[in-house]
Amino acid sequence: MNNKINIKKSLTSTGIVLKLGFVKYRIRSKLPDLVESLSVLYDDYNLSNYSENSGFIDFHVDIKEVGVFGSLFSNQAQFFLDNFAPFSSLPRQHAPAMIEWGMNWCVSSQINTHLIVHAAVVEKNGLAAILPAPPGSGKSTLTASLIQEGWRLLSDELTLISLDTQQVSPFPRPVSLKNESIDVIKNRYPNVIFGPISSDTTKGNVCHIKPPLLSVKNQDDVCPVGWVIFPQYQAGATTEFVKFNKARALMDVAENSFNYSRLGVSGFNVLKDIINKANCYKFRYSQLDEAIKIFSELERPS
Amino acid sequence: MSFSMPLVIKVFSGQITISSLSNIEWDLLIRQAKKAMLLAKLYYLVEQQKLLDDIPSSVLRHLKSAQVHSEKQLNDLLWEIRHLQIVAKNLGHSLILLKGAAYAIAELNTAKGRVFSDIDILVSFDDIANTESQLMLNGWVSCNLDTYDQHYYRKWMHEIPAMRHMIRGSVVDLHHNILPRTVKACPNADLLLNQSIRLLDHEGIKSLSPVDRIIHSATHLFYDGELEHGCRDIVDLFSLINEYLQQGETIANLIERANELGLQKPVFYALRYVSQTLKFSVSEEDIEKFDNNIPSGLMLSMMDFLFIRALMPDHISCNDFWTGLARWLLYIRSHWLRMPIYQLIPHLFRKSYKRITSKEKY
């Protein structure tokens, strides 16, 4: 069904079903911007028309136009989860970014079977590298490059670590790029497909890129953690890649987690085991070429 | 105009069995339970029937997630209660915990999977000032700094404005009664205080007696205008009453105590709507033991019509054409019950004025 006309038809009527890793969303919206972004960015996903046979849905999502007179004369859009609006409305043209944030929020606020870390996560040769970092550290730019260089995208924003198996569950999404990063990736990888740009959001200009086909196809393949790497982009800096104290690494990952404190002792235990087994590094870089080289030579944990 | 019960009610009442649920029913059930704050309760219901391994894994994920969250809340609550024990020790008298905090500390089944919010405490009216100061010395400060509100609470209400802990963020509601002083049915608080019970292993902490816990829960529900947690509360009542009966008590004893406190109406409604929604049965003979003050005839039919709708989860699938009106009328009713008209009108006028001039966010 993945063409624009079908997507539009479904979105505006019963909704489309989008499966991301173990999470199924039903999305409804009448906003044209959303049709554009979904049909471009989610082209490789198995989208289907919502019906009684769609089975259990994790999150029923609506993006609606809102305004003083309902949708009339409206230039605002709002995210709803099962008729509940967790955030304020945003200008309509930010809808493509808003739905990505909203879908992340559904998982980060409501799923407690996994430790959820605000981190990108990529995989190669069966081991995952977790990249936790605060905004502005160049995490997404690095991720966007790595996934063009043979790494599989598990997630750009949310690393989901199962409390039962301690493996990472993929949640592959379009990678969100901001401001200057958009041009950096455009110039470096001209074949990458970009969604519509949401300009002047609270985070600046935001644009999402389509994830590689294999990342989408293998979105059910979980994998263990090999590395925890804290990246920091710094213009003009010489590349620095050093082992990071494990106790400190544990605290830093916990700090970047959405539900660490909610999980109590089981959250601590899973994180302790992961950090113990993984190689932990601090990584400062300014050149993407050097960054990619370092990642290709990562030492597997013993 | 008959009303068909939502799925979540049918599941909690046992009218629909867990093992018979289809995927699409699970979808609706999870949404209704989430909205009604009953998701973790649903986890325990499934666990109790030993069906956790038999339900779809995607459904289990939501139930388990809610259970983890409720466990965290319970842990946090117990930690706050440890701090309140210090407050009690410094005061030299006990603090009586009400509602959720009491269920937790008394280790009732009712506490399992319950969503907790503020911690409600009851002390005698004369102890309010000391208790408030001691709470302040231990880090809790008033959330509401508006002079009119402070005055209004202290003069007319059964509690002082909520206090929030500066560092941990926990919220304490300090009460000297279970209904505002302006309510006609406001009971003599000494009757409640005198029968409060000590709790093993929790020095300085007490709870209302089991029968008074039921009566308080009923009073809170049927005098409160904001019924969005009504479904959770009716499930609480169902569970509290069952635990009470399991201890060898009887409905007749419950009614006798309601008569004594002058709180016949809320207890009558509690028994009535728990029976109508969750398939619990109360004999006519017992109902006749209410000494007076219980609604009947047309009035009762109207209350049935309103409450059955308003007590349902605030989810789109649980509403019918009349739900909105029912909620609104019961909201008006609660104000009507809480204050005589000569006090209510100036109060509402003052509140609206503030809202319009946006000095206050509701």
Mean pLDDT of chain A: 91
Total strands of chain B: 7
Order of strands in the sheet with most strands of chain B: 3-4-5-2-1-7-6
Please estimate the helix content of chain B: 55-70%
Global geometry of chain B: globular
User: Which class of the largest domain in chain A in CATH terms?
Assistant: Alpha Beta
Count up the helices of chain A.
Answer: 10
Q: What is the residue-averaged pLDDT of chain B?
A: 91
**End-to-end C-alpha gap of chain A:** 46 Å
Query: What Rg of chain B is obtained from the alpha carbons, in whole angstroms?
Result: 21 Å
Structural class of chain A: alpha+beta
Q: Based on DSSP secondary structure assignment, what is the total number of beta strands of chain A?
A: 17
Compute the number of structural domains of chain A: 2
Could you state the order of secondary-structure elements of chain B as H and E? HHHHEHEHEHEEHEEHHHHHHHH
Strand % of chain A is 25-35%
CATH architecture of the largest domain in chain A: Alpha-Beta Complex
**Oligomer, anyone?**
heterodimer
Q: What characteristic shape of chain A results from the CA principal axes?
A: globular
End-to-end Cα distance of chain B: 34 Å
Q: Element order, helices and strands of chain A? A: HEEHEEEEHEEHEEEEHEEHEEHHHEH
